[in-house]
Design goal:
By secondary structure, the chain is mostly beta strands. About 10% of the residues lie in helices and about 50% in strands. Strand 1 and strand 2 form a beta hairpin.
Length: about 220
């Protein structure tokens, strides 16, 4: 499953990055800047606003909700990071190591209007209580299914691979922004999945972690050239 999840997919053979009169793109063959034309209106799949067949870096950052951090405190859990992740100023960030993303106008009828895969290898979030440390790492964000998968380790031993860890709610997602070499999507809220809640409760001997618990608000910054 992990191999298929980590395989970057091109969701449209043509596309354009267009915002505020600026247009640029990334070719799937050599990842060099080029301009693509929007697909014909006669196509069953409408032309996307943005198509990035190969994301060249960036990160996914989550501004942690106070309710989530308060819940961790009440459970005696201390958050931390593993690998290349960073935790500072109330936010945790994970470098994007590979992936692709395609974005259609939210004003149109095509859904889901954000599709692709974003891999975050060798970084993760840790939760520690006493002698027990749970590590959630190697995240794969699938915006099309609104799910985030990852590996779960307990004291360094794999407890679950490619587990469904968090659900992504895009109702508050802001329009795509282009800043320099980056495409930015912000506003998606991140919630603990029922599967992850069950695993955490079992590991830390509690029933206080509920599925749907708001973790925070995500910002995806994808380097595109």
């Amino acid at each position: 499953m992990r191999k298929s999840l980590k395989t970057s997919i091109t969701l449209a053979t043509t596309g354009a990055l267009v915002l505020g009169g600026a247009a640029f793109g990334v070719s799937a063959a050599n990842a060099t800047p080029s301009v693509h034309t929007v697909a014909s209106s006669s196509s069953k799949i409408p032309g996307p606003v943005a198509s990035v067949p190969e994301v060249l870096g960036g990160d996914t950052s989550v501004a942690l909700d106070k309710g989530f951090t308060d819940a961790l405190t009440s459970l005696g859990l201390t958050p931390g990071v593993s690998g290349n992740a960073k935790l500072a100023d109330g936010a945790v960030s994970f470098p994007i190591t590979s992936g692709s993303v395609t974005y259609w106008s939210p004003d149109g009828n095509y859904r889901p209007y954000v599709q692709g895969l974003l891999n975050h290898d060798d970084s993760g979030l840790t939760l520690k209580a006493g002698d027990t440390t749970v590590t959630l790492e190697n995240f794969v964000v699938n915006p099309g299914s609104s799910k985030l998968y990852g590996d779960v380790l307990v004291n360094g031993q794999v407890a679950a691979a490619n587990a469904y860890l968090f659900s992504l709610h895009g109702g508050t997602l802001k329009p795509l922004q282009l800043e320099g070499d980056n495409a930015i999507l912000t506003g998606t809220t991140v919630h603990v999945s029922a599967d992850a809640a069950k695993l955490l409760n079992s590991t830390f001997k509690t029933d206080a972690v509920k599925g749907g618990l708001l973790v925070g608000t995500a910002t995806i910054t994808a380097k595109i050239k």
